[in-house]
Amino acid sequence: IGNIPKDIRRKPSQKAYTLLGYLPTDNLKEITNQSKRRRVAANIFHISLREILAPTKIPASEGEVMASGDGLCRRNHPILAAYACDYLDQVVVTGALYGDCPICDTPHNHLGDPDYPAELRNLEHIRDILAIADEVPRMYLQACKEARIKPIYQPFWSDLPGADIFLSITPDTLHQLYQGILKHLVSWIKSAYPHAEIDARCQRLPPNHHIRFFVKGITPLTKLTGQEHADIARILLGLIVDLPLPNHLSPVCLIRSVRALLDFIYLAQYPIHNTATLDAMEEAMNCFDDNKSIFVDLHIRDTWNLPKLHIVARHYRLLIERFGATDNFNTQFFERLHIEVAKDAADATNWKDEFPQMTLWLERNEKIARHGNYIQWRQAGCPPLADINPLPPPLPPLKMTKRPSLLAVPITQLEQEYHAADFRGALCRFIVQHNNPTASNLAILQEARDFVLPFTRLPVYHRARFWRADFPHYQNSLDSYDVIHVRPKRKNYRGDILPPRFDTVLVNIGNGEIVGTNGYRVAQVKVIFSLPRAAIPLIFNADRRSPLYLAYVEWFTPFRDPDEVHGLYRVSHAVREGKRLTAVIPLVNIHRSVHLIPQFGPRLNREWTAGNVLEKCTKFYVNCFTDRHTYGTLF
């Protein structure tokens, strides 16, 4: 009934959804004619939903008083307003022909034409056609054919008060964006470029917390899930930026097409929309329309009559304006519910007349859960209703382990094994500058040369976890924390030598804002450490509070304008007099991790590996698709 916040509704563990019934899934093998079998299956589906929704007809028209979660009683009209499902179910629900749009009356052969008028389906006209099913069957069949709908007998939505099934179809991130647009895009890229070159580049990407490492590349993968397509979307543009096309064709249009579709996918998943974000979505799709001819030139596509692409391109703005952000209706939530209320319930039966057992099992579990909640409420002292089922509190911006990974590492070992050659000098410069924030650079250098550290060993941490609350509405339960790894070369339990890993990060150099790259700079973290407590009073002034955790970093060049074709920022190692620029900074100045994509060039350097590419490569692209928070706040 739409009165539950989406932060609760989109979490299956919060139990915001209620099962109303099981729909029959019999394959009807006794009906040998396939077209007749499909018609019977569709009619059974609509009859079942008609029975389930029959109790809502009178309350939908006359209203019914319901108690809300705050204890107040309000008059509600339970109208079928949204139906979230994938394209196959949309066709069955609306009665549209397979291959047509379930929302508008655009015929299949014009779905890829951006200039064709996409007029919404006329519900009243279709209801008039459905009304003559019992009167003149032949005329009914002909009218259905002309209206391009299936001759379904009394669809469940035909007499529901206030319902327009064609305007109830919701956006679907899982099936339309990832299993639809991105799935097509990946297949087109596989057809355009050599598989071996794509996989070789994929295997040489540096690690990052948000990046999945595909051991054999992405081209051998089949039957991909939505999460796997989301992982591919994070690296897809970086894999093809420098790759030449066959026959000396210019890759500019292809790169712009890929960037446009990725922009649309990420923009469509914003948790909050305004006119600017919706306009940006349309601009991204217009950019794709202007450049998609490259796939025709490569003989990859002949037409663009793809229903999912049509729905995304022509109707997403209307659907978002009508229903809100796309995270309200992601079918990924319902996939999880299918496990809990169908598969788990079926496994609890003896598979003999299982449906009564399943419903009884669900009822008992719901009663146990309600009673458990009641007990917890009583044990908590019967708090007011407003405090029941609260959302978790905001996470701390920095979370470290209680104990360091290594308690006392010699500074000489840091300089050698952690590749922190200028560790002593950088730490001395930080201490001097921290005590004298107004001193000039020359004065800091002169004083740092004479500064003597009162310790030779330091506690070192190999991992740090971040949570940035500067964009609190842009949470993603799959990657809420951002983690950076900093560890030297080591052996695993098998005795194999694992390469060192020093992640790259985005550092706030003093004036970084919530959105944009101004005030930020890319760096590679070599050491995360803290200072001995006994040494702090000896090196810091009493009026200056010392940071709890510090990081030794190597700088990259500042941000400049992004590339005109693919829109990625270019950075390289910051070098002065043949040495990389280094510094010691407070760990809290690190905004988040950032993924760098090497500039592979037309020919890949086969000596590069995922473990050494950050050292051997000199030029990089800053990946803006590592996660939705990065894209939404920085790029």
Brief rundown of the structure:
This protein is an alpha+beta fold. It has 21 helices and 20 strands.
Give descriptors for this structure.
635 residues, alpha+beta, seven-stranded antiparallel β-sheet, four-stranded antiparallel β-sheet, 21 helices, 20 strands, 13% strand
What's the oligomerization state?
single chain
Number of helices: 21
Number of strands: 20
Poorly predicted runs of 5 or more residues: 475-479
Fraction of residues in β-strands? 5-15%
| Largest sheet composition | 7 strands, antiparallel
The first-to-last residue Cα distance is 36 Å
The coarse overall form would be: globular
SS-derived structural category: alpha+beta
Mean pLDDT: 90
**Overall helicity:** 25-40%
- What is Rg? 30 Å
Give a description of the structure.
With 635 residues, the protein is α+β, with helices and mostly antiparallel strands. Strand 1 (64-67) and strand 2 (73-76) form a beta hairpin. Helix 10 runs antiparallel to helix 11 (275-291). The chain is globular, with a radius of gyration of 30 Å.
Can you lay out the helices and strands and say which pair or pack?
Elements: H1 6-9, H2 34-53, H3 57-62, E1 64-67, E2 73-76, H4 87-94, H5 123-131, H6 137-147, H7 173-192, H8 195-202, H9 226-240, H10 252-268, H11 275-291, H12 293-297, H13 307-323, H14 331-347, H15 354-379, E3 398-399, E4 406-410, H16 411-417, H17 423-435, H18 441-449, E5 457-461, E6 463-466, E7 482-487, E8 490-491, E9 497-498, E10 501-502, E11 504-508, E12 520-529, H19 536-539, E13 550-555, E14 569-572, E15 575-576, E16 579-580, E17 582-586, E18 590-593, E19 595-598, H20 613-616, E20 619-623, H21 628-633
Antiparallel strand pairs: 1-2, 3-6, 4-5, 5-12, 6-7, 7-10, 8-9, 11-12, 11-18, 12-13, 13-17, 14-20, 15-16, 19-20
